[in-house]
Write a structure and sequence with these properties.
There is one protein chain. The protein is an alpha+beta fold. The chain has a domain of 49 residues. The protein is built from three helices and two strands, in the order αββαα. It has a two-stranded antiparallel sheet. β1 and β2 form a beta hairpin.
Length: 103
């Protein structure tokens, strides 16, 4: 039987999972919710010393089309190229734009 030396004690938030014959684990819904993982989303696994793993919801990289579609229909204003250039320059310089925080 393996020694428990160096292991943290199983506290009130500890969960036990069973490894299948294929070497797979199933995370319960409450654990996925705790990670903020949605159906179809991937999970990043970081291997830590001492036989430990750390799980994180994978951060989506997205596409420019996906970003633009988030903004579609939110405003009837169509920015000119000059307005876009000004906003981009201000943003890169760290200056807030006049409409910052406005829906």
């Amino acid at each position: 039987m393996p020694s428990s030396a160096g292991r943290r004690s199983a506290g009130p938030k500890a969960r036990s999972l069973t490894v299948t014959s294929k070497g797979q684990l199933t995370l319960r819904k409450e654990l996925l919710a705790h990670l903020g993982v949605q159906t179809g989303q991937r999970i990043d696994v970081e291997v830590l010393p001492g036989g430990r793993l750390e799980l994180h919801a994978e951060q989506a990289t997205g596409t420019i089309d996906g970003f633009i579609s988030l903004l579609a229909g939110r405003s009837s204003h169509r920015a000119t190229l000059a307005e876009l250039d000004e906003a981009a320059a201000a943003g890169w310089a760290g200056f807030p734009t006049p409409d910052a925080g406005q829906p």
